[in-house]
Task: structure prediction
Amino acid sequence: MSTNQEQLTILNDVNVDIKEGESVAIIGASGAGKSTLMTLLAGLDVPTSGDVELLENPLSTLDDEARAAIRSESVGFVFQSFLLIPSLTAIENVTLPCLLQGKKEDKARAESLLKAVGLEKRTTHTPAQLSGGEQQRVAIARAFMIQPKILFADEPTGNLDQHTAENVIEMLFELNKQHGTTLVLVTHDPKLAQRCDRTLFMKAGEVVASEGGDA
Result:
């Protein structure tokens, strides 16, 4: 059988149970399946076999619309690609989750979050007027906007300078502590991994080890 006809298995025999309020780091080499695991846990994709349950919802039995409703109501995201709306300013991107939930924009909270990530002077700038690191900070502020029950973050400190990265790490764990938000973080940052309750090590599409952190 030629390679382009073979089925590519990205994850194999992964069995993960994440408790409410827990903070979990997922680490491993590039191509180990970390981001794929996160997109499955978040219901952005469904597995070809096996089951994923998110906030007591069996995702494989739900359609796209039902999964999107769960994410809109209870889940925050920080992606490597940021996924900001190009036509919206920084503050409008941050308040977008309010509109998606049919709620009034909380501009005061959005301004406070942008200040926390050092962007208080860039609130009216569009993504094209911001650097990659600044766009990432907008995405982080947006993820905090609705005080989600669970926050998924793919390399949340990857494009940030050390000072901003430390601020973001503090914000993540403050959200975890104050609101009981479950954190699932894909990271190469050993400081961030050590702060988590647990670290999952991935290799070639499998979780090969699980260790408790320093927290």
